């Protein structure tokens, strides 16, 4: 799906926006056109809370084939109770890397989440903001870092800039 029917954006290209701000990454900016885009998300482009919620969707069609190769037990999580949650987090942590302003984010602090409002399941984590200075910050996510350049299992990068504006 293209953003513009006639693709008149010769300066503000799709590549430019992918490395700028893509509305589908911000829950407050998503529209009906973004409903089928399983992108990592934060609540908004401006954050004033002491923690930033980051939702990383589980995309079965893409994640399961890679999980079969990398995760204990393959793509089938047959654990019960709390062990099922731990197994899901451990597996997703093998598929994704996350950085905040260049520093690694440990996904083992995340928990599985069901988002019925989005019709998605995935991981959610709450990143502390207290040590950040007000202003722009950048989340960088990579899925399947060793995945090559082509095909459904290719490496995928996501950039989510946001502005931290703590309330006085």
Number of structural units classed as domains: 1
Quote the average pLDDT. 90
- Unreliable stretches (pLDDT < 50, length at least 5) are none
- The residue fraction in helices comes out at 10-25%
Strand order of the largest sheet: 1-8-7-3-4
Question: How does the major sheet shape up?
Answer: 5 strands, mixed
Termini gap: 42 Å
The rounded Rg comes to 17 Å
Structural class: alpha+beta
Q: Approximately what portion of the residues adopt beta-strand conformation?
A: 25-35%
What is the helix/strand order? HEEHHEEEEEE
Q: DSSP helix count? A: 3
Described by the principal axes of the CA atoms, the overall outline is globular
Number of strands: 8
Report on the structure:
There is one protein chain. It is built from 3 helices and 8 strands. With 168 residues, it is of the alpha+beta class. The chain has one domain. The protein has a 5-stranded mixed β-sheet. Strands 2-6-5 form a 3-stranded antiparallel β-sheet. It is globular, with a radius of gyration of 17 Å.
Please render the helix and strand layout as text:
Blueprint: H1 14-18, E1 46-47, E2 51-57, H2 60-70, H3 82-95, E3 96-100, E4 103-104, E5 111-115, E6 120-128, E7 135-143, E8 156-164
Parallel strand pairs: 1-8
Antiparallel strand pairs: 2-6, 3-4, 3-7, 5-6, 7-8
Helix pairs in contact: 2-3
Observed structural traits:
168 residues, alpha+beta, five-stranded mixed beta sheet, three-stranded antiparallel beta sheet, 3 helices, 8 strands
Short description:
The protein is of the alpha+beta class and 168 residues long. Helix content is 18%, strand content 29%. It has one domain.
């Amino acid at each position: 799906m293209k953003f513009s029917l006639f693709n008149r954006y010769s300066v503000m290209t799709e590549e430019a926006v992918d490395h700028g701000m893509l509305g589908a990454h911000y829950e407050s900016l998503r529209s009906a056109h973004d409903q089928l885009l399983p992108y990592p998300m934060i609540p908004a482009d401006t954050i004033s809370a002491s923690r930033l919620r980051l939702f990383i969707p589980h995309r079965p069609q893409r994640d399961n084939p890679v999980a079969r190769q990398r995760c204990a037990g393959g793509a089938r999580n047959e654990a019960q109770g709390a062990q099922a949650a731990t197994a899901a987090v451990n597996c997703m942590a093998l598929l994704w890397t996350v950085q905040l302003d260049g520093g690694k984010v440990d996904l083992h602090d995340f928990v599985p989440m069901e988002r019925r409002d989005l019709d998605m399941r995935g991981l959610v984590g709450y990143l502390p903001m207290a040590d950040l200075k007000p202003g722009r910050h950048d989340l960088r996510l990579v899925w399947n870092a060793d995945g090559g350049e082509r095909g459904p299992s290719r490496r995928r990068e996501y950039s989510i800039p946001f502005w931290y504006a703590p309330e006085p």
